[in-house]
Amino acid sequence: MTTTAAQQQEPAEVEERLVTMLNNGALAVMLSIGHRTGLFDALSEHSPQSSAELATTTGLNERYVREWLGAVTTGRIVELDPDSGAYRMRPEVSALLTRRGSANLAVFAQYVSLMGSVEDKIVRCFEEGGGLGYEHFPRFHEVMAEDSAQTVLAALESDIIPLVPGLSDRLSAGIDVLDVGCGRGRALNQLASNHPHSTFTGIDISAEAVDYARTEAEARGLRNVTFAVRDAANLAENMPAGAFDLVTTFDAVHDQAAPDAVLRGIRHVLRDDGVYLAQDIDSSGSHQGDLDHPLGPLLYALSLTHCMTVSLAAAGAGLGTMWGRPLAQQYLRDAGFGTVEVRTLPHDEQNAYYVCRP
């Protein structure tokens, strides 16, 4: 039996690691609050500031601002000048925790708070089985939209579309595109804006997400994109065969109740010379194989508290976030895809990209 690093540690080392973990878990919640309230942005743009000045800048309650500053200061995220009583953020920290940075890690910290918000209900699922439907996650699409803005939107034209040779030229010339599980439609609206000769359709089971996507499309004056509330599992029954040249999914398959039906539907609506481009979580599909995954604990935890449970709530497959490459490739082959290429991108250690053809 393989001895893990934790088993090799002395008791005092294990205790220190666990205490550090508790502090970091608390700080993750503080990062989420700092992001949602705009505190990090305000502190970065107007440093240094006292707690009273920061409260005035943000329009927030000073007592709460002061206590939040205590957490992020003792957590070595924000610095305090003991003489002036003013707080500041170093530029390299600001780049990682504000909306001005290209990799705002505070966005991902929101997932920790989302997991905590359903803990009591998840404990009941441990005891009783079943799952929690999407209605238990009112902020999910909001956070996912921010997440995808960094992992998908920022790299969509520069890195993701080029994974399919010639696809950018085809989009510019004009093709029919379907995004399944489009969420708030940010990726599709960006593509529609960049490629006015192509026609884009987005579907999602969430009416709230679809309404948001439509509103954004209208605000941008986009006339080549439409959105509809639709269950992706019914694609084969509700959409004509061979209607699209390109089908995309961005982190949208593993939490489906019927992923096999979704993938068969995608193959049904895809033209014989078309391509299906899927982004999904990269994993080995096994606990042992994922021991060195840089985001392993976070992704398994998110699976437990969201992706797996929403599928089980609908009596679904419950694949979970970490279903892994081998199972994903099997599902794709069973759905009728003859060629499946797996690609990765240097900026995105969380996902794998599947380029699939009939």
From TrEMBL:
Domain Methyltransferase: 172-282
GO MF, one annotated term: methyltransferase activity
Keyword Transferase carried by entry: yes
InterPro entries per the UniProt record, alphabetical: Methyltranfer_dom (IPR025714), SAM-binding_MTase (IPR053173), SAM-dependent_MTases_sf (IPR029063), WH-like_DNA-bd_sf (IPR036388), WH_DNA-bd_sf (IPR036390), WHD_Rv2258c (IPR048711)
GO biological process, one term: methylation
Chain ranges of the S-adenosylmethionine-dependent methyltransferase Rv2258c-like winged HTH domain: 25-99
Pfam families in UniProt: Methyltransf_31, WHD_Rv2258c
Gene3D superfamilies reported in the protein's UniProt record: Vaccinia Virus protein VP39 (3.40.50.150), Winged helix-like DNA-binding domain superfamily/Winged helix DNA-binding domain (1.10.10.10)
Keyword 4Fe-4S: no
Keywords linked to the UniProt accession: Methyltransferase, Transferase
Protein name, UniProt field: Class I SAM-dependent methyltransferase
